[in-house]
Amino acid sequence: MGRWPLAAFVLCALVLVCVTWQVAAGGPLLRADVRAAGVLRTSAMPDGPAELLADLGNVPVALSVLAVAAGYAAWRARRARIARWWAGPAAAALLLLVTLLLVVAMKALIGRPGPPGPVGGTGFYPSGHAATSAAAYGAAVLLLLPWTRGRTARRGLVTGCLLVVVGTGYGLVRRGYHWPLDVLGSWSLCGALLVLVALCVPGSGGRTGRRDTDGPPDPPVG
């Protein structure tokens, strides 16, 4: 693991530990969380668009996007005769499964009550929708980056992903489905896991993988 991936992993892990500790222990950060939720819930966006943003974290939607990206990345990697062409898509699928399992376990262990709104009960930390969107769309971008030509296109792909993930989190808080810290906890969890996935995707910052000896060179991405 290089310096930057390691730094990103450590940062995400520290944020996750800090936020989880504050939520579980009822720390002072919860007061700021309540205030932030109040500001976001009274923002100008109408309910309809906010609901659509929140729905981007639904498993069927996010899983469909990841499946298309994984299939395309696997096809391109196999055409390029990369030895472990299946490693990236397999890591992305495993990421989504591990993310969902960890979220379910943390919800059960912490049992945080939800904000006043359409959904009651406990088990709101971390947000499953925010985690699903961050894991699925983030992994999709990691799979597509090596096969995206041009710096502008790659930046656009990353920027679009960030906007979708942030928009999903905003929609969840705006509609009263989650507290802001629920979303932040999910983002930090998925950020750490995405660093590990990047190590398995050729050309995304981890190992590039070795081509078969009789295969053509890797396609240019610049």
UniProtKB/TrEMBL annotation:
What domain of life does the UniProt record list for this protein's source? Bacteria
The portions of this protein that span the membrane are 52-75, 87-110, 130-148, 155-173, 179-201
**Protein name, please?**
Phosphatidic acid phosphatase type 2/haloperoxidase domain-containing protein
Keywords (A to Z) from UniProt: Membrane, Transmembrane, Transmembrane helix
Q: InterPro entries from the xrefs?
A: PAP2/HPO, PAP2/HPO_sf
Q: Which intervals hold domain Phosphatidic acid phosphatase type 2/haloperoxidase?
A: 87-199
